[in-house]
Amino acid sequence: MNLKDTLNTYGKKSLGLPSEETYVKLHEMSPNLDELWEQLVFEPIKSVRPPLFHEATDEKGMWLAQPDLYVPYVQAMFASRYSKQASISESRQKLEALGYNVTSDGQMSNIWNRCETRLKLKDSERLTTKAKQARKKIAEAKGKTKLHAMTEARTKQLTEARKIAQEKKLIARLKKEEHLAKRRLAQSAKKSGRTAKDIKQTKAEREASLGQVKEEIKASGKKVLYEPTTKQAEFHAADEDIVLYGGAAGGGKSYAMLVDVLRYCQFDGYRGLLIRRTSPMLKELISVSRSLYPKAFPGSKFNKSDNVWSFPSGATIQFGYLDREEDLENYQGLPYSYIGFDEIQHQRSDAGFIYLLSRLRNANPEIKCYIRASANPGGSPWVKELFIDSAPANTRFYKNGLSYRFIPAKLEDNPYLDTPVGDEEISPYRKMLMALPEVQRKQLLEGDWMVGEDAMFTFAEGVHTTSELPPLHWSVVNALDYGYKDPAAALWGAVCPKTGQIIIYSELECLEHDHVAWGRKVLEHEGYMPQGVDRIIDDSVFRKAGHVGPGVREQLARIGLQPRPADRQREPGWNQVYQRLLINPETEAPQLLVHESCVKLIEQLLTARTNPKKPDDIDEKRIKSKGRTHHWDLLDALRYLLMSRPQALTIQERSMRHKTSAQGFERYRGYFQ
C-alpha cells in the first residue's frame, strides 16, 4: 500500500488528511516515498529494544509496526509539519484524545524525526532551535535571506562572531567606565579650582620634570637618598587611582612603596597607611623606614607602640596589618590619603581591599588620594583576576569609575641587584633564584602569573581550552555528582574515536534541587542525543542505606536517567586529570580539552590547591574568586568521568551498555520487592 491508501485505511479523520498539494510536495522531497513508506510500516526492523507501537516477530530482535497505532502517530506529523493543519501541541492533544500516552512534545518530535529520516524527507542532521537562530543571525549580518546548512566553516564563523560581540560589549563597558572616570576627574578639578589638564600630566611632561629635578639636585651638591630605577620612576609617576607594582623578586617593589608613601608628607593632615598581612611581616619595612625617613624629613619620630611615623608638618604614616576581617575594626572611621598594600597576594580575599576603599578621603585639594600595592605571582587568585586578567600590562583600565594599572617588575629592572660581581656572568641574586624549584623559579625570576606553588593542576587557558565543539559522531559521556546544599554538578564530554582525546563541552550546576528536578534539568540541558549517552554517577546512590523507600537511583531511573556507578577513588582520579593535561608529543596537544563555555570548570581547575597534609589530594578548603565560592563539585564530576575509562563506542555497543544498565537497575529494584 502506498502512503495515500495507508492513511485513508488506518488514519484518523480527527487528525486531518494531507491535501493533494501536500502529497505532491512530499513526493518531490522524496521521489521513492511510497517504497520507503511500505518498508517503514509493513516490513520488520531490527532493534535491541522494542520500538514504540511495534510488536515482536518470530525472529529474535525483529519488530513489526502495528499500523492501527503507528500510522495515526505519523499522520499527526504530516498534519503538523507539512500540511500545517495543526501545531505540535494541538497534534499532541488530538493524539491524547485518541488514547495515546504522549509524555512530552519532545518524545513525539523524536519519533517524527526518525520517521522523516527513514522516509528521506530531511537531512540526517536536524538543526536545533539555537542553531537555527545562529544561522539567522549570520544571514542577517551578511544581508542574505537564505539560510544554509550549519557546516564546520559556519560553526567557526559563528564562534568568531560571538567573540567579536563579546569584545564589543567589553569595549562599550570600558568606554562607559572611562566616561564615568573623566566625569569624576572633572568634578574633582572643579572643587580644587584646577582643570583636568592641570591634574592629568602627560608622560613626557613627567619625565621632563623628573630630569629637571635630577639636574637641580646634582647642581646643589646634595646627597641623593633614593634614585629610582626606570620601573620605580614609572610607578611613582603613575597617576591612576589604583596601581599594582608586581612581578619577579628583586624589582625593588617594597622599597618603592616606602618612598611612594612620602609623596605628601609636607602637608598637614596627610595620613598614609602601609599594610602587610601579619604584624611580624612589618618588621623589615619598619627597619628600612628607620634608616630612610629621618634623613628624608629631619625631625620625624617613630612611635614603636603604635607603629606610626610623625613628621614635622603634622603628617603621619601608619604601619598596620590585616589578616582577618576582625582586623578591619582597627581602621574603622579613620580617613587615609594613601593606602599601600605590600605583598598584597598574601591577603586571602579582597574583602579588606574593598573595605579600605571607603577609608580613602582627604579634604585638602592639593592632595590626591591613591591606593598602591606590590605583589609577587602566586597567592590568592583574586589579585591576578583584578589586575593581571583585566587588561594588558602598563595599560589603564577602569572598574566602577576608578582607574587601574598593572606595572610589571623583573629582576633586570633593578641594576642594584642584577649586576654581576667580578668575572661572573650573572649576578649572585639571579644565580640564587635560578637554583629554586621550577614553580618558584618561574614566579620569582620570570614573574610568571600562570603558575602556582600549590596549584593542583598545570592548566593554562589557550593550551587546555578550545572554542570548537566536538563532532556529532563522537561518543558522549555524562558524569553526575548530586548534592542539595552543595551544588549538584553535571559534565558532558566527547571522546575522539581516533586519538582518544576528550573534550568537555558542556557543564551544569544546580543548587537546592531535589533528585527529580535536578534529573529533569540535566535532560533539558542535554537535549536530544540520537547517538546515546554513557552516564556515570557517584556510587553512593547505589549503596544499601538500610531503608526501603525510593532512593536517588530509582527516582532518576523513573525519568529516564540510568547511570552506572562511578569510581570515587580520589588520588587515582586526580592522577588521571594530571595525565590527561600533559601535552602528547605526537599530537602536540593535551588529551583533555575544556570548551570555553565551561567557565566554572575552568575556574575550579585554575584555583584548585593541593592539600598541605596530603599532597596528592585536593585541598577541600573552599576558595572564593570572581564572587563565587568553589565547591569542587565539577572537579569531582571530571574525576568520575576520567575514571570511567571513556572510549569511543559504536552504536551497537552503546545500546548493549544501556540495556545492561537497565537490567542491572531491575535487579537492584527487585531487592526491595
Brief descriptors of the model:
single chain; 673 residues; alpha/beta; Rossmann fold; 4 domains; seven-stranded mixed β-sheet; 41% helix; elongated
Description:
This protein starts with a helix and ends with a helix. The protein folds into four domains: 3-124, no CATH class; 179-224, no CATH class; 228-444, Rossmann fold; 465-670, Nucleotidyltransferase, domain 5. It is 41% helix and 15% strand. With 673 residues, it is α/β, with parallel strands linked by helices. α4 (67-81) packs antiparallel against α5 (88-97) and α20 packs across α22 (633-643). The strands form five sheets. Strands 6-7-8-5-9-10-4-12-11 form a nine-stranded mixed sheet. It has a seven-stranded mixed sheet with strand order 13-21-16-15-14-17-18. A three-stranded antiparallel sheet has the order 1-3-2.
What percent of the residues sit in helical stretches (DSSP H or I)?
40-55%
Structural class: alpha/beta
Number of strands: 23
What is the highest CATH level, the class of the largest domain? Alpha Beta
The residue-averaged pLDDT reads 79
Terminal Cα separation, in Å? 48 Å
Bin the strand percentage.
5-15%
Looking at the structure, what is the overall shape? elongated
Number of domains: 4
CATH superfamily of the largest domain: P-loop containing nucleotide triphosphate hydrolases
Largest sheet: 9 strands, mixed
Oligomer: single chain
Q: Tell me what the CATH architecture of the largest domain is.
A: 3-Layer(aba) Sandwich
State the helix count: 23
Poorly predicted residue ranges: 123-128, 660-673
Strand order of the largest sheet: 6-7-8-5-9-10-4-12-11
